[in-house]
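Example 3.2
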Amino acid sequence: MTIENKIVAITGAGRGIGRATAIHLAKRGGRLVLGARSEAEIAAVAGEIEAAGGEAIFRATDVTRRADLDTLVNLACERFGRLDVIVNNAGIGPLSRFDALKVDGWEAMIDVNLKGALYGIAAALPAFSRQDSGHVINVVSTAGIKIVPTMGVYAATKNALRTATEALRQESGPNLRVTEISPGFIDTTFADATIADPDIKAAIQKRKEELAISPDAIARAIAFAIEQPNDVEIGSIVVRPTAQD
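Structure, written as tokens:
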């Protein structure tokens, strides 16, 4: 039961849950392969890890481009000889009511939250097949468990990924582990960066100030799933603030 020397690729690793996960796993001895659209952000995370004595490499990665995920996985295999875990974490949430007709935002969420994770799976599976081992971790959301207004399309993308994750788990056989992690309200800049509607943004900010928990909580959950013995699969973990409905 260890994370030491496991090769872990993480998308959306420049901030929030991805950054917290990278730093936490590196402290536990993991060797990180970081991807995000902002090369400056992941370079900073890699620098922080290395300054603390850990090991991390990075590559600018836009999960809406399948080739970028192939490149990230190939980087892991070329540098370390294998890939043990892929954490499909990249996500966006330009929340809106349906009647606001923010169709561009809907399409962007489908491209990043759903297709981006599928591209990560498609990139990792050949490497896992060659190794006869591997672990896919998909970050979904409690928004798909309790459906509320303004989060319809966001929740739909997360629930589509939840469904795909369960199907992959059933297809995976004895040597591929599959896990979905459902975060609740987490203290990140996720909503601030993508929500245009000022009323929705203010409501989300208020809720975050009232009850959000640190992204370190999700990092610990991901670590828990990874560190299990090879014959133990943690299929699903929900991590939310105790005060969240």
